[in-house]
Amino acid sequence: MTIETMTMQRALATIISGQDLTRGEARDVMEIIMSGEATGAQIGAVATALRMKGETKDEITGFAETMRAHSAHVHTEQQGLLDTCGTGGSGIHKFNISTASSMIAAAAGVRVAKHGNRAMSGKAGSADVLEALGVNISLTADQAARCLESIGICFMFAQLYHPSLKHAAGPRRELGVRTIFNMLGPLTNPAGADRQLLGLYDRSRTEVVAQVLSDLGLKRAMVVSSHDGLDEISISAPTQISELRDGVVRTFDIAPDELGLAVRPIDEVTGGDAAVNASIIHGIFAGNERGAYRDIVLANAGACIYVGGAAESLRDGVELAASMIDSGKAAAKLQQLIATTGEVAHVS
Predict the structure, then answer these.
(1) What is the pTM of this model?
(2) Cα separation of 240 and 225, whole Å?
(3) Mean pLDDT of the 12-41 span
(4) What pLDDT, in 10s, does the model give residues 283-302?
(5) Which UniProt keywords are present, listed alphabetically (predicted)?
(6) Quick one: which of 14, 76, 142, 288 has the most CB atoms within 10 Å?
(7) Would the annotation count 93 as a binding residue?
(8) 101 is in an annotated binding site
(9) Does residue 98 have a known ligand-binding role?
């Protein structure tokens, strides 16, 4: 029996007995998984047992630390750098709100290193819709760094930056349920972003995940999960927010009217495939959309701007986000992203 097998068996026995792994033990388990030394049965058993027990702060942090160590890294100035990557998994087929929000935040002067993947819960993930918008999503780490330094925003396609996660792909697919792996993507920004708006599918875990972000070195963050099931700030119901600021996590609810926005039915923010969602984003940025699509983007872009330090409050962030759309700066930032990703991809 190998050392790796014994380590996995001990970890599984610990979890099944209702005890928690230490941060170091979690790091070791994830190291075995990402090195390809764990069997599919071991990966599935550990992920399922953790889900049933309930993942702790130290377990999530340990897994994320190892995943970060195995990822490709975008070398850039990390201070004041924002990510808007969420977990997906809400089961509600909305359009790509965080992707649109990231471009508005960048237009407002927040440096954005957007991390994302193809579809998880909807019909189009951030990678899908950016591709449909004409953005080159396949930049290397060096190319992404050049894009970020040039225009203040870049996109990092998760599949290209976390190749070692392929060892867990089969067990995850076969399990078909959400596990700790669903939380890890948003916790492993390849550029080391120190600020984040993180949408979470599970409202009971916002505070734990905010504490994980603190342990991972983030300076400011908001982990959001709405009362109507969105992994976004909702305009249909209150949203629970766990805010990390000055090393302290504070949890509270916020309603749409506190952001200066009307309450709208949740079915008004549903989207479609990548082409449909790209059309929605174009419509918002062109100023043609004055309804729910615009408002939910304003709510989340406002939070991005606030967490990014360009606004003093969430409501101020919403107002600045609106001005970025109305002035045409958001649309211009999208065009910059399209042009620059095309250019840097052809520079060796």
Answers:
(1) 0.95
(2) 5
(3) 97
(4) 999 999 889 999 999 999 99
(5) Amino-acid biosynthesis, Aromatic amino acid biosynthesis, Glycosyltransferase, Magnesium, Metal-binding, Transferase, Tryptophan biosynthesis
(6) 76
(7) no
(8) no
(9) yes
